[in-house]
Design a protein that fits this description.
Low-confidence stretches: 1-37, 40-51
Strand content: 5-15%
Number of helices: 12
Radius of gyration: 31 Å
Helix content: 40-55%
Oligomer: single chain
Shape: globular
Distance between the termini: 112 Å
Length: about 300
């Protein structure tokens, strides 16, 4: 009888301890006494995985930079093109500046964050990125347009490509695509070679339409497409052939695609700008051919540059 009462009392005491003390202390107690009440399961160790929040940084406070920051939301960090980039954090650093600002932006970016730089500029960046050891960074072909600072962007869709033309490649490509799609804009995530071809296609567009427009007094790209289409199409074909010599394969219909895009941004003015990043790429091909004693693969392009006094 006494043994039964003693056993019952011990059980009651243990149950009271379980109800009152924290679980970890109970586990310690029953372990030290090597006696656990019936039905008691010791707490299991748990590991809490702390998710690292993605930090979005936008460099450049112009039209595109401001529009992108608005899409990213209030937690996005905006810095000017000459401001230091945050050294802490993980996430894309979108560079929405002119090409000529890129070297300064890279210099202001801590070495540990440079792999996160996302390049959104027009033109040929390949050689520059290789010199900067950033050739594997994320790149974006921006086809959406922001007419004025503060206005909502217009998607880069055309009557030939209603699915849109904006594309990205690299580590942060999916992050950008999700951001743009949430804002109602299109974005295609491409593998390296398709993106390379798309990049050259946009380079050909800006180099050909700007050059023909400038040759006709700085008319709009829409006027080039309407009034000088045979001339600009011939130039597109010439530049395309030169690029194909670099083992680049284009999808069929480059000329029609570029003319369709022109119709969607018909109001854009024309001028020869950022020469080293745009038309300068094709001029360099011509110069290399001349040094090698070969025919100029971009002869029409070279002649037009010389007529305008650009070279």
């Amino acid at each position: 009888m006494r043994a039964a009462l003693s056993s019952s009392s011990t059980t009651i005491v243990l149950l009271l301890i379980i109800l009152v003390l924290p679980a970890t202390l109970v586990h310690s107690f029953v372990t030290s006494t090597n006696r656990a009440p019936a039905g008691y399961n010791p707490p299991r160790a748990t590991v809490r995985m702390m998710a690292t929040a993605t930090q979005h940084v936008v460099v450049g406070k112009g039209r595109v930079g401001e529009a992108l920051a608005k899409m990213l939301g209030p937690k996005a960090i905006m810095v000017g093109r000459t401001d230091p980039v945050p050294s802490e954090g993980t996430g894309p650093i979108y560079i929405a500046t002119r090409n000529d600002d890129l070297a300064a932006v890279i210099e202001k970016t801590p070495p540990n964050r440079r792999k996160d730089l996302v390049f959104m500029q027009n033109g040929m960046l390949g050689t520059f990125l290789e010199r900067s050891a950033l050739q594997d960074n994320t790149q974006v072909l921006v086809y959406f347009a922001v007419a004025k600072k503060g206005e909502a962007p217009t998607d880069g869709v055309t009557d030939l490509n209603p699915e849109g033309l904006t594309a990205a490649h690299g580590e942060w490509a999916n992050d950008l695509a999700a951001t743009l799609r949430a804002a109602g804009l299109s974005c295609h995530v491409l593998e390296k070679e398709p993106f390379r071809a798309a990049m050259f296609e946009k380079l050909i567009w800006i180099s050909s339409f700007m050059l023909v427009g400038a040759a006709h007094g700085g008319i709009t790209v829409g006027e080039v497409e309407q009034s000088h289409r045979p001339q600009v199409v011939a130039l597109i074909k010439e530049l395309k052939s030169a690029v194909e010599e670099l083992d680049v394969t284009f999808k069929e219909g480059v000329e029609d695609r570029l003319c369709a895009y022109t119709r969607s941004v018909a109001h854009f003015p024309t001028a020869i700008k950022e020469f080293q990043w745009r038309n300068g790429f094709f001029w360099d091909i011509s110069q290399a051919a001349a040094k090698a004693g070969k025919a100029d693969p971009c002869a029409t392009h070279s002649a037009m540059l010389q007529q305008l006094g650009v070279v």
